[in-house]
Design a protein that fits this description.
Layout: H1 3-15, E1 21-23, H2 24-31, H3 38-50, E2 54-59, E3 62-67, H4 69-82, E4 93-100, H5 105-117, E5 121-124, E6 127-130, H6 137-144, E7 147-154, H7 159-169, H8 172-191, H9 199-214, H10 233-260
Antiparallel strand pairs: 1-3, 2-3, 4-6, 4-7, 5-6
Helix pairs in contact: 1-4, 1-9, 2-10, 5-6, 8-9, 8-10, 9-10
């Protein structure tokens, strides 16, 4: 797990609801259980400041960093897709982008990743399509310096034709296999967190669960049900994610609050064979 990616997860899942700010020392403490060392955290923070995602500020507990308005918009959109709080209906219209450039391969890859994150699929090198418009796509294209045209389009053949467009823009079989792999990989990890586990252990496992789930923001455009195959693996994977993310949340929140100085001091690990008296982690 890279420090920069972990910081996006940390700010989006835990710090955004707490005001979107934290002292540097707390950032280091919160990423330590994930095996990310302090120098890597500070380097990633500096990079995110240069990119306009974070801004420095002075907190009562020392120097810290807060998310920028640009980061707040991106994190809120990501949270809505991670926990699927947005709309899933479809009016039959596509948002169509026709791009002019960029010519540089690295810039094309960066722009492609950003468009994929916003839910767009590539029909060809210049044409991208989404089943719902993104509020941020104009800003992303403007920042890249790409000239573009944007259309609202419907398929003349109706829904069967729309399904064909979707199959061209996204490899749904590959995405479905990825969902199945996600559940297979995460199941033993979340099952290992029981009532005997510490808050830190629950936090680390939940963090990795959300981090793995977040990768689907770049793969899965969360298509409306009418355009998905029957028995879509993403449905079962979402149920699995929701159940364990909710089960581990109270313990993870306690650990975060302790690291931020908003809760009880982090308790020592409980020796094997002894039950922690204040743990309330439900069984999977």
């Amino acid at each position: 797990m890279q420090a920069r990616s972990a910081l996006f997860d940390l700010y989006g899942d835990y710090l955004r609801p707490r005001g979107g700010r934290a002292p540097v020392a707390a950032l280091v403490r919160l990423l330590t259980p994930l095996g990310i060392a302090a120098p890597a955290v500070r380097t990633a923070v500096s990079r995110m400041v240069r990119q306009g995602w974070l801004e420095p500020l002075r907190l009562a507990s020392g120097p810290g960093y807060s998310i920028t308005p640009k980061a707040a918009r991106r994190l809120d959109e990501a949270a809505g897709r991670i926990y699927r709080t947005g709309r899933t209906s479809w009016d039959g219209r596509f948002d169509l982008l026709v791009l002019d450039g960029p010519g540089n391969r690295r810039e094309r890859q960066r722009l492609g990743a950003n468009l994929s994150f916003l839910g767009y699929g590539m029909l060809d090198e210049r044409t991208w399509v989404a089943t719902r418009p993104s509020d941020d796509v104009d800003d992303v294209l403007a920042e890249s310096g790409v000239r573009f045209e944007r259309f609202t389009a419907t398929h003349a053949a109706g829904t069967p034709g729309a399904v064909g467009v979707v199959r061209r823009a996204w490899n749904l079989a590959e995405i479905g296999e990825a969902y199945e792999g996600f559940v297979e990989e995460q199941r033993p990890l979340v099952a290992a967190v029981t009532a005997r586990s510490t808050d830190e252990d629950a936090y680390a496992v939940r963090f990795r669960l959300v981090h793995a789930w977040r990768t689907f923001l770049f793969r899965d455009p969360q298509l409306p049900p009418a355009l998905l195959p029957q028995r879509w693996p993403g449905t079962g994977a979402a149920t699995f994610f929701d159940r364990h993310a909710a089960r581990l949340r109270p313990a993870a929140d306690r650990f975060v609050d302790a690291c931020l100085g908003n809760g009880p001091t982090i308790s020592p690990r409980v020796p094997a064979g002894r039950r922690a008296p204040d743990r309330r982690i439900r069984q999977p």
